[in-house]
Design goal:
It is built from 1 helix and 3 strands. The chain has a 3-stranded antiparallel sheet, with helices on one face. It is globular, with a radius of gyration of 12 Å. By secondary structure, the chain is an alpha+beta fold.
Amino acid sequence: PELPEVETIRQGARKYLISKKIKDVEVCVPKMFIGNPQAIINSSIVDIKRIAKVLEIDLNNDYSILKLHTF
């Protein structure tokens, strides 16, 4: 997607995900996940930022999730 599309995704996600808790984590591609998935369970989403085509989802426990949009 182009940058405006990624920004639209970020804005839409922000409306629905801010303050939501992560209840479970499923790692489909283990080499794409660094760290312990259990460390983010029960954390809340505090912000969603965009850096180029990457969405950064900040959690209340000082962890972040990065999502690269490449479709």
